[in-house]
Amino acid sequence: AERYGAGAISMDEGDAGDCASDMAQYRGCLQTILRLCGSSASSSDEPSTPAASDPTTAPAPAPAPAFDPTGRQFRVGVVTLSDVTFSPPPGGRVLVNEQVRVTFKHDVCCNAETRIWVRAQTSGSCRMAGAGSPLYRGVGDGDGYVVSQSGPCTIEKIVFRVKREDEDETKELALPVTYDIQ
After folding, report:
1. Residue 139, beta-bridge partner list
2. What are phi and psi of 34, to 5 degrees?
3. What percentage of the chain exceeds 70 in pLDDT?
4. Which residue would you say has higher pLDDT here, 88 or 20?
5. Which strands make up the sheet holding 3-5, listed edge to edge?
6. How far is CA 83 from CA 101, 134, 142, in A?
7. 11 closest CA partner among 83, 74, 71, 67
8. Structural contact between residues 163 and 115, judged by C-beta atoms closer than 8 angstroms
């Protein structure tokens, strides 16, 4: 099982009550966002019909805020990632062959040896490359990068791929970002 809430993506068995509480909190936040944006939300599963508005007087919708991983922890298999930073910050343009660097703190449990690769998910057709991964153990700092070898395209997600040395399975965590490759 996994636990979603309070900045963590990790789960323990038997957290159904916490998940229900988190879901109620999520619905409350969603209703507040919809209310502030001028839409209505109901507690039922029925879709609501937005009120008609005059397009000549309606304000332009605000852009969605960028995802900010500051202060959050992410559990991926036996690894907890935290203090994730991107350089340059998401939301801008990046040139072909310019690196997007990602730094993070890691906490690898269970005496495991893991590799943590940073990769990109893109839209458009471009060739991407990324750094290799050392073996990570215990608590420490990590980093990686992705680089586009062609363009134009858009990086939509930075993906952490985590693999224990003693297992075949690779687990992934994708964080939403936007970089326009020119």
Report:
1. 107
2. -65, -40
3. 64
4. 88
5. 3-5, 8-10, 73-76, 79-87, 99-108, 139-148, 128-130
6. 13, 19, 10
7. 74
8. yes
The percent of residues in the chain predicted with pLDDT above 90, rounded, is 56
Q: What's the pTM value of the predicted model, to 2 decimals?
A: 0.64
3-class SS string, the chain: CCEEECCEEECCCCCHHHHHHHHHHHHHHHHHHHHHCCCCCCCCCCCCCCCCCCCCCCCCCCCCCCCCCCCCEEEECCEEEEEEEEECCCCCEECCCCEEEEEEEEEECCCCCEEEEEEEEEEECCCEEECCCCEECCEEEEEEEEEECCCCEEEEEEEEEEEECCCCCEEEEEEEEEEEEC
Residue pair 70/82 in contact by the 8 Å Cβ criterion: no
CA distance 8 to 2: 10
Q: Does 88 sit behind a cis peptide bond, omega within 30 degrees of 0 on the bond before it? A: yes
Residue 42: per-residue pLDDT: 42
Which is more confidently placed, 64 or 101? 101
Contact (CB, 8 A) for 159 and 172: yes
Contact, 118 vs 142, CB < 8 A? no
